[in-house]
Amino acid sequence: MYGDKSLTPAETMRLAVLGALTEGDVSYADLATSVRHFVERMVGPSLELLGSSLEVLRLEGLIEAADGRSGDQVPMRLTPAGRDTFEKLMLSSLRAPLNDIQRLVLALKLRFIDQLSSEDRADQIDLLLELTETELARLEDLRRTGAGGMFADWLDQEVDHTGKRRAWLKSCLERAEADV
């Protein structure tokens, strides 16, 4: 992790793999394919996101073959150490503004947030809300500089989108806090 407790690209890829396995056992080949597909659709092909192979996660004891065999079609599962690592990665912070990597981390957190305890889920939604409010304040400040033309139109669109995300996160936080 970086000093601000946000994820490195390699840790982001770990979160993608471990999170996928929180949803159930999946074959080695299908796991690799689904993680690659999700990441490429979120941020496009990226050399920065060529994370460690599944074999490294297996050697570290974070994932294992469900039946002790090896091969592409063998179901993989999360180990207890893998579950602990998943939770640690899910509880990491995010950096503002959102770049491609941070958008991927945000998407992964939202995809797997239901795998967390009610309290941790509420904390993560609060973190996302805080980040969104910071982003909105930054955009509104930039908009007040008097920019015109297409840039102003684009800023208005970004402010509107971020404002809608803030409202949605507020409603998510209310629901999550009711579950705690």
UniProtKB/TrEMBL annotation:
This is PadR family transcriptional regulator. Keywords: Chaperone. The keyword Chaperone applies. The keyword Chaperone applies. It comes from the Bacteria. GO terms for biological process: protein complex oligomerization. It holds the Pfam family AphA_like.
